């Protein structure tokens, strides 16, 4: 994929124009308020490995590694410079894959979604300059390409409707800019700057109850392109002045002012203050006593907290509130997967306020400064084959072992190093993972030391090629955004050098390293900690538990959305996106296994918590059982999201739909199949997807996607899957280049398919 192709792909998706790609032979990669069906109780069943539980009060208060990244990674300045940000060596790392990143790119005018509101820098010619914001309802969604289709291929929310614009007298596009400070995972502070001592500060935080603007030596202007039908002052709320705005679209906004300024309607598009002020003005959609009770407070930052006690973990968003309110508390919005998991002490904090989110159902507002959720952890899912319906410890008959061994003997004949030493961190990672799994099967399932000795050294050699940073495109440390990126052109390797897909790419490497280290525990620390340092640096880049001088906190995983975003530093009109839920949780599963081999209890606990959150969130927002109550009814029959944006969901991929039908769209949410797959992809969903979408096309699929779909079949029908993988007329062309028949047979037999 070239740079032009990548940009065109992004534009096509943003414009909702889909075109089929030439079919590849093996899968490429790319650049009601509550579920009526509650999350099913989780049980890990039996395991031949002890399920480790911990009691840890703060799972985010540690470092994966300290100090600079290893010198083996050459230092470089990125060709894309973040707009409005200080990016020197001593400055905070700037987030590349989270909600506010659009404000750092190009002309800074692409929207960001704090949820439930969206905001953007508005400097359109002839219009008011400032920070515009809006909220869209589910009734405004646009479905296409056929509006009445069921299921629709995509839906999106109309972007950049200027309900209101936070502006000031004298603001002009040629002299007004936006800067960003306080770069945290869940928050950032935007400043609309007119002159050095004249600016508007607008803190942005996930779930913030109000849009809050603090004016500094500015005469306020509040503009609206929708138009103001009614404007009135209502009685004060304590020391706060309160106003009501009704727009011509009949949407009402409540406005609260802490300060000595009076607002007046000047014309149907402008409300102006009577003086230069340092007042704080807050906006909220609708009218509610909860707004009255919480106005005056606003978050200037958010801390991520977490603790683990036995089989359960809690995670919290601690909002650092400024100001004071009548209730002594602020207001926070949360998504459906938060609502299901909220601790009981927060249930009576529900304000009765509800607003639609763009793609994740109905949000609820709570009168609180801290949101705390609790999840049950998947402690018993570790190395062994596991499925939700399997209650026995994996066992293998001599006949089954013979078949697995025969497959292994054939597959270890391949050139591991040559296959892995290519120009893609993603594809090479899949190859490393494939052969690491074969080595694992040889050692622990076949218990064959001779076969293990034949494959293991070559897998180690292939991994060490990357650990030594001697692959075709070595990794470099970017001192601008602060991260580990490919030295390849941005158009190569699916945009790795522009921070696309790091958790996908590096997840395969980390999982492979964990498998090899499980076989040889001394390997990680040999050669002066060569592989250990490599894996740790990959994890610092993608899942740093707390920010440091060299990496941001959790580049990929969004703790508010409940899944990661793969989209790096490319501006997007519909926000960040992710198309592979399975490679997302595969990364976290690899982190969990790596944590086990290095004995990092906090990392293992973080991984378990992330997996538990993903299980809940992905089954609401990405994987659709028939009884899904979150997504629109005319979209659920797609069964999977395709590409999930912040503002849109598109049943598509960046590389096409499929050779036969839509198998690539389904398959990208399956690969790779590991013991964690059945935990996320629940049996009911897998059965429905197979019966409704895949069974009628499976026999006609001519390439490696067929193997992916057939291994996924084992998640509800392992016997049928076994018969396909165990047959005599085996054809290697029908499995993905990152799959092995060895692991497929071992996994299916381990969950009961060979009985």
Search tags:
755 residues; alpha+beta; Glycosyltransferase; Beta-galactosidase, Chain A, domain 5; 2 domains; eight-stranded antiparallel sheet; seven-stranded antiparallel sheet; 23% strand; disordered N terminus; polysaccharide degradation; Endo-beta-glucanase; glycosidase
3D architecture notes:
With 755 residues, the protein is of the alpha+beta class. It folds into two domains: 3-64 and 378-750, Glycosyltransferase (Alpha/alpha barrel), CATH 1.50.10; 105-299, Beta-galactosidase, Chain A, domain 5. Helices cover 27% and strands 23% of the residues. It contains 17 helices and 32 strands. An eight-stranded antiparallel sheet has the order 9-10-11-12-19-16-15-14. Helix 6 (425-445) runs antiparallel to helix 7. The longest helix has 21 residues, at 425-445. It is globular, with a radius of gyration of 26 Å. The model is unreliable at 1-48 (pLDDT under 50). InterPro entries: Endo-beta-glucanase, GH81_C, GH81_N. Keywords: Carbohydrate metabolism, Cell wall biogenesis/degradation, Glycosidase, Hydrolase, Polysaccharide degradation. GO terms for molecular function: endo-1,3(4)-beta-glucanase activity; glucan endo-1,3-beta-D-glucosidase activity. Its EC number is 3.2.1.39. Residues 396-745 form the Glycosyl hydrolase family 81 C-terminal domain.
């Amino acid at each position: 994929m070239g740079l032009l192709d990548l940009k065109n792909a992004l534009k096509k998706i943003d414009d909702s124009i889909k075109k089929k790609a030439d079919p590849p032979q093996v899968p490429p990669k790319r650049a009601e308020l509550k579920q009526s069906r509650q999350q099913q109780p989780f049980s890990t069943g039996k395991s031949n490995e002890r399920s480790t539980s911990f009691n840890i009060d703060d799972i985010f208060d540690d470092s994966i590694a300290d100090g600079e990244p290893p010198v083996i990674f050459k230092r470089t300045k990125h060709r894309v410079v973040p707009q409005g940000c200080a990016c020197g060596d001593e400055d905070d790392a700037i987030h590349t894959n989270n909600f506010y990143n659009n404000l750092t790119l190009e002309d800074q005018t692409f929207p960001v979604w704090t949820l439930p509101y969206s905001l953007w820098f508005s400097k359109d010619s002839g219009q008011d300059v400032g920070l515009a914001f809006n909220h869209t309802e589910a009734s405004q969604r646009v479905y296409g390409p056929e509006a009445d289709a069921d299921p629709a291929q995509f839906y999106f929310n109309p972007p950049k409707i200027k309900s209101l614009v936070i502006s000031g007298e004298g603001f002009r596009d040629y002299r007004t800019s936006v800067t960003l400070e306080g770069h945290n995972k869940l928050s950032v502070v935007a400043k609309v700057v007119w002159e050095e001592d004249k600016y508007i500060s607008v803190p942005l935080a996930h779930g913030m109850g109000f849009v809050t603007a603090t004016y500094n030596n500015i005469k306020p202007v509040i503009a609206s392109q929708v138009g103001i039908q009614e404007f009135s002052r209502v009685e004060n709320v304590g020391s706060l002045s309160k106003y009501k705005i009704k727009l011509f679209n009949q949407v009402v906004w409540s406005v609260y002012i802490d300060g000595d300024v009076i607002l007046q309607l000047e014309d149907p598009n402008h409300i102006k203050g009577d003086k230069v002020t340092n007042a704080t003005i807050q906006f909220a959609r609708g009218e509610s006593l909860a707004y009255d009770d919480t106005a005056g407070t606003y978050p200037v930052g958010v801390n991520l907290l977490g603790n683990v006690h036995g089989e359960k973990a809690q995670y919290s968003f601690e909002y650092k509130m400024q100001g004071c309110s009548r209730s002594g508390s602020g207001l926070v919005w949360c998504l459906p997967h938060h609502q299901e998991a909220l601790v009981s002490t927060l249930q009576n904090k529900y304000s009765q306020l509800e607003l639609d989110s763009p793609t994740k159902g109905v949000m609820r507002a709570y009168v609180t400064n801290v949101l705390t959720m609790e999840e049950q952890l998947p402690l018993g899912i570790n190395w062994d084959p596991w499925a939700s319906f399997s209650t026995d410890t994996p066992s293998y008959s001599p006949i089954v072992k013979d078949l697995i061994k025969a497959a292994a003997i054939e597959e270890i004949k391949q050139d591991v190093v040559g296959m892995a030493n290519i120009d893609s961190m993603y594809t090479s990672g899949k190859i490393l993972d494939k052969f690491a799994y074969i080595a694992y099967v040889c050692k622990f399932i076949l218990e064959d030391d001779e076969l293990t000795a034949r494959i293991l050294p070559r897998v180690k050699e292939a991994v060490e090629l990357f650990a030594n940073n001697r692959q075709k495109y070595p990794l470099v440390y970017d001192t601008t955004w602060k991260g580990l990126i490919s030295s390849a052109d941005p158009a190569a390797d699916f945009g790795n050098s522009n921070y696309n897909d790091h958790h996908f790419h590096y997840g395969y490497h980390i999982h492979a390293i964990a498998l090899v280290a499980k076989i040889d525990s001394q390997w990680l620390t040999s050669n002066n900690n060569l592989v250990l340092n490599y894996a740790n640096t990959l994890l610092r880049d993608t899942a740093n538990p707390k920010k440091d001088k060299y990496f941001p906190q959790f580049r990929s995983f969004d703790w508010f959305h409940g899944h990661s975003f793969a989209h790096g530093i490319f501006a997007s009109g519909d926000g960040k996106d992710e198309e592979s839920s399975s490679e997302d949780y595969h990364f976290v599963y690899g982190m969990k296994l790596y944590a086990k081999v290095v004995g990092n209890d906090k990392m293992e606990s973080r991984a378990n918590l992330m997996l538990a959150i993903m299980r809940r969130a992905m089954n609401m927002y990405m994987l659709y059982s028939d009884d899904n109550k979150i997504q629109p009814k005319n979209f659920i029959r797609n069964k999977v999201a395709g590409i999930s944006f912040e503002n849109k969901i598109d049943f598509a991929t960046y590389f096409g739909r499929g050779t036969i039908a839509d198998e690539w769209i389904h398959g990208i949410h399956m690969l790779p199949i590991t013991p964690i797959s059945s935990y996320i992809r629940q049996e009911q969903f897998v059965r429905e997807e197979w019966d409704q979408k895949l069974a009628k096309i499976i026999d006609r699929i001519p390439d490696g996607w067929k193997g992916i779909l057939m291994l996924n079949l084992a998640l509800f029908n392992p016997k049928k899957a076994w018969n396909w993988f165990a047959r005599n007329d085996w054809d290697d062309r029908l499995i993905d280049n990152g799959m092995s028949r060895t692991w497929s047979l071992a996994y299916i037999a381990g969950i009961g398919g060979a009985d």
